[in-house]
């Protein structure tokens, strides 16, 4: 079983920055891709960013140039640096990890960007 715990969410004004962290525990390996998704009220959960064990990243068009995903395999942790935040970035952000058997999700952390 894999557990993911997010942290770093909060309230920030437009144009500000936040860094989210997600620490994985359990039966995990450095080869697992990890990512961040977000879900706003009334909307579907969408992928924000993804990173492979080799550091290959993928971003949603809406966050390119503003968000940066990174990982520290030694700490089993993935980060999402969010800069130039906009009110439309407001959502619950979820960490995920892709394994050979299933995809794991964290509990989510709220990010609220005020206008």
Total helices: the number is 0
Helix-strand topology string: EEEEEEEEEEE
Mean pLDDT: 95
Helix residue percentage = under 10%
How much strand?
A: over 45%
Unreliable stretches: none
Shape estimate: globular
Report the radius of gyration as a whole number of Å. 13 Å
Distance N to C terminus = 40 Å
Strand runs, count: 11
Mind explaining what this structure looks like?
With 115 residues, the chain is mostly beta strands. The protein contains no helices and 11 strands. The strands form 2 sheets. Strands 2, 4, 5, 6, 9, 10 and 11 form a 7-stranded mixed sheet that branches. Strand 9 and strand 10 form a beta hairpin.
Short descriptors:
0% helix, four-stranded antiparallel sheet, seven-stranded mixed sheet, mainly beta, 115 residues
Describe the structure concisely:
The chain is mostly beta strands. The chain has strands at 2-7, 10-13, 18-26, 34-39, 46-51, 57-59, 67-72, 77-82, 91-98, 103-105, 109-114. A hairpin with a 6-residue loop joins β4 and β5 (46-51).
Detail the topology: elements first, then pairings.
Blueprint: E1 2-7, E2 10-13, E3 18-26, E4 34-39, E5 46-51, E6 57-59, E7 67-72, E8 77-82, E9 91-98, E10 103-105, E11 109-114
Parallel strand pairs: 2-11
Antiparallel strand pairs: 1-3, 3-8, 4-5, 4-9, 5-6, 7-8, 9-10, 9-11
